[in-house]
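Weekly sync notes, structure subgroup
Attendees: PM, AL, DS (notes)

Item 1: joint prediction request from the bench team. They want all two components modeled as one assembly rather than separately. Inputs as received:
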Amino acid sequence: MDTSEKILRQAFAEKQSAVEAQGHAVRALKAAGAAKPEIDAAIESLNGLKLEKASIERQLQAAIGGGDGSLNRETFRQAVVNTLERRLFYIPSFKIYRGVAGLYDYGPPGCAVKSNVLAFWRQHFVLEENMLEVDCPCVTPEVVLKASGHVDKFTDLMVKDEKTGTCYRADHLLKDFCNEKLQKDLSISPEKAAELRHVLAVLDDLSSEQLGAKIKEYGITAPDTKNPLSDPYPFNLMFQTSIGPSGLSPGYMRPETAQGIFVNFKDLYYYNGNKLPFAAAQIGQAFRNEISPRQGLLRVREFTLAEIEHFVDPENKSHPKFSEVANLEFLMFPREEQMSGHSAKRIPLGEAVSRGIVNNETLGYFIGRVYLFLTRLGIDKDRLRFRQHLANEMAHYAADCWDAEIECSYGWIECVGIADRSAYDLRAHSEKSGVALVAQEKFLEPREVEKLVINPVKKELGLAFKGNQRMVVEALEAMNEKEALEMKATLESKEESPFYVCTLGKNVTIKKNMVTISKEIKKEHQRVFTPSVIEPSFGIGRIIFCLFEHSFYTRPSKAGDEQLNVFRFPPLVAPIKCTVFPLVQQQQYEEVAKVISQSLTTAGISHKIDITGTSIGKRYARTDELGVPFAITVDSASSVTIRERDSKDQVRVNVGEAALVVKEVTDGRQTWADVWSTFPHHSAGSAEADE
Amino acid sequence: MDTSEKILRQAFAEKQSAVEAQGHAVRALKAAGAAKPEIDAAIESLNGLKLEKASIERQLQAAIGGGDGSLNRETFRQAVVNTLERRLFYIPSFKIYRGVAGLYDYGPPGCAVKSNVLAFWRQHFVLEENMLEVDCPCVTPEVVLKASGHVDKFTDLMVKDEKTGTCYRADHLLKDFCNEKLQKDLSISPEKAAELRHVLAVLDDLSSEQLGAKIKEYGITAPDTKNPLSDPYPFNLMFQTSIGPSGLSPGYMRPETAQGIFVNFKDLYYYNGNKLPFAAAQIGQAFRNEISPRQGLLRVREFTLAEIEHFVDPENKSHPKFSEVANLEFLMFPREEQMSGHSAKRIPLGEAVSRGIVNNETLGYFIGRVYLFLTRLGIDKDRLRFRQHLANEMAHYAADCWDAEIECSYGWIECVGIADRSAYDLRAHSEKSGVALVAQEKFLEPREVEKLVINPVKKELGLAFKGNQRMVVEALEAMNEKEALEMKATLESKEESPFYVCTLGKNVTIKKNMVTISKEIKKEHQRVFTPSVIEPSFGIGRIIFCLFEHSFYTRPSKAGDEQLNVFRFPPLVAPIKCTVFPLVQQQQYEEVAKVISQSLTTAGISHKIDITGTSIGKRYARTDELGVPFAITVDSASSVTIRERDSKDQVRVNVGEAALVVKEVTDGRQTWADVWSTFPHHSAGSAEADE
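Output from the run, pasted for the record:
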């Protein structure tokens, strides 16, 4: 809570007490039958206090941002979403059956935007970086997701309405309660406000018990019915199913695409000539059975992920192409800045890596590539930041993790996660499958290496532990260097050592004759190791939603009587690149339009021809609303005009050249400025008059 | 069964009897102590008969194709599949966990082929035909698939090993039994063979009881254990799951993508300006929980479908672009030809439509477009046929249906279904959802229309049928014109009429006072109707597998000591368009290679650079096996050679031109013949010597 808010809350509480006290005083005077001037003076004083309270209230509301700001964001979002749904960019799935929460269809323009975004992703990442793209099934057997930890840990805490059985996410209810209290209840004390803010900050870390206790303490009830709620309990977010007819093979719809790559590591490493580093990539559907989906396209039950798994030697995370991105400078929000309450700031990427803010060059390289990818799509660079995970957000095995967050009407939204996951995933699948997922580095000449050698003496262990011998042997062999050296010291000093065997779940006593621990010099010809993996993971639907918001604007119609909607998509993203309009319904113009349409098809330019008699202005407005960047208007048999969406500028081009000019700008080989400086300008004459 | 086979089976059976009789005679002579010359003569005769029997056996085996032919097909398939799996075109999913039947991953080259096929599909169908592409979720609520009929009818009949519980498809077991018997048991009578062939022909029509009876009659047991089998029972092929946390909303993974389009008909029709015809399209995953998947990529549990739903006025199924495909001529296999035992024959498409073999122009147009699509991908036109469904194969509502079948080592495989599904799907969803999925045709002037009016007299019906009144009323109202006019006549002549009410499952008696049936003249301003839908549905994985087989060939290495594998993919399909090889490891060459690689990246040409010291011949062979059409070999600083995969011809091109030349041929703007006639030929000198 910043200082001004704290002071204002304090002042508001004091003023509130003063108002109450003065009100009490007025009533007392009246009851005591005091003189009218005396009563009037007291009332005047009361009114003065009320005015002061109201003034503080306004300042406080402004300080906590619960007022006009969020209202504007809601209004803006509603305008965007209305346009998107009306023009079928996306629609709730199965609408005629009243839909299913968290499932959306992309209609024609949305589907085109999505396929453009994915095609660019393939070009920008897979093709330019020579990644190995794979395509694995969504249906996944349990054993794979058991190894990855999803079966046991991919859960959210849920509470149930004790009477109706309706389910809610426990943390959402608590979060909503705290936010509502902070924004709407101005009478809470600064201490209470600080407490609520603290709850919000640690929300992700609360255990099931802690969440339950807070819900009880605050008296939170079911939002719709006000019924009491159950204690929180974990709900696994994977859609479960059964593979084959026997009912004996549980399976899940994958919650991410990454596991399909990890289990193929061995083959992919071989395909890459047994060389590191290399990256594999996958685009595909992922599924999360959200408890109560909300925020439209941002939290859905089925979505498209595009994931990269870049495998690298943990001892060498440099990247040969890092210099190509080192000079990029954009908003970064390192852990330190977040902890000390500062905001994101522009840092050159090279500096972030050299100063150790970003853990390594490869991670830095991908951060830079993600920045280029998002901004080229049309994401506003001032509303894009890379936020480092705090220690409590990161998985225990992760070396470093940055989220590309995009600001939209819902706040800052995680759209791409870029994590150095160390060797965790490959190790987990190695252990579970028994197949070694490792890489080798062959030495030019053999190296002498000091190695720890643990030799369990099986005869002695067998005598001591009988049937448990195997478990003890395995546990001894699995000790890391530190544990082994400690045991060695204990055995030498005390002849025996207590030793915890996790597969037995208890301590046993190891005697000196049961194991030899020593360091030996060995000659090694190669190093065998589990590669680290750096994983940029893209939520395509979230990126697209933010892109919609960043691209949307309105401008007055020519007559000034209404606001027209425009999406300023770059040609790369635009669902249709060009429209072809005969200015008026006339056979000659329509034939020219058809010829141009054929050239556009041949050139692979998606376009739409509109021969309705609607006014040209209306036709422009309709396609501006779809974000179509160029319109070719046929107003003669020999030449046509090409109009650019945002400037509304028009040039005049020969019929035969029109398709080519559009192709050059949509393919990015020319800019509109190039076109503008090459061709004669068409003044807002007949064609524009109508607009 | 063709005549020669019948005669041969007869002859074989007779010869078999003769051998047995003669053997018996020999034994009798020996037992009777006959003279040696007599016995020798009998033995000689026996051996003669055995030779004759062996000769007939060979002819019979050749006639039924169970001999070398299928062996060759198996060997060929094994060679293709070995190459595909070794080069990671595809691999069994989750291999390190011993895999899951019916699930496959596409590795890097397979994934690239798939994405090329899909990109071309989008260009050939969506873009060129201005289709409305949509993208709907895989998770589908039960109500949708209840309406479509999948919940009740999307089943296969299954039998269980009564001891182990292992499940099998009942029809597969019966089919395998019949085929095995026909191909391997030469002693069966021609009558028995005819019976088995009949069973194979009607296999798809057998009821659960009939299948069970045949399995019992033939004594078929579980293939692995020889245990007895259960009676057949239906198993629903959809993967079931549960949407949301309550467990109260059953859902399924969609078995096809089409339903997502049907439920959006209303919005899509509006998006298209309330005009027919229009087509919507969708590419996406579909899921079928096969009982026992086999045939590799052909029968899998998760696959990519590309589907088109072309909505059209049932009274006008002409197509404006039909003339563009009318002259195509390819293998068609109409119903009549199949019934009369003929084979597929080449028919011009225009003729097939004008003669009514193909039901309508729109269906014909799509058949033509599918032919062009498949052959441009590289499917051999002589191993592609369009087979019309027999009456018993077609859904009752379908107007006509043709499968594009491709011949591969498994036989003729359905890869694309092109069906005129009439108004079935839209009607089903209209009824279930209560939302009218209809189109309107506005008349220029109002039309007088004679309309059948059925007015049930509810009072009389209520008195007669009490609680069943509603069912009777609905059944009366649902009569078609023919039924209603028949009832009218019966009521007029006999005062009453028997009437079957399907919702009651019985006949009731309708009296004359219970309903009025009349024809009235009405003025209508528009016609409201449910559009017909013509659905081309593409199994992408099946097409790709057939493409792999049709593209594969082997040729001897230069030294002649081994057979090298080649995929003759057209550039459109090839996973990588070009490789770049420095002839020898030399810094100067490597730098040139990098410059060319950068130009190729800029031009969007997927390629691979290989700077290993491996011999150039080996490097060519490696990439021929991936189907890479062109190789640029750097053997000087100023010019390079470009080699074409199938001819192994090479031309010499300047360094700066190389990327452009490759782009022109891979984009299809030039052919290799053009390149060959433009640039100087490079004789098999240093670069080729090694090959």
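Discussion: Confidence is low (pLDDT under 50) at residues 686-691 of chain A.
Action: AL to compare against the crosslinking data before next sync.
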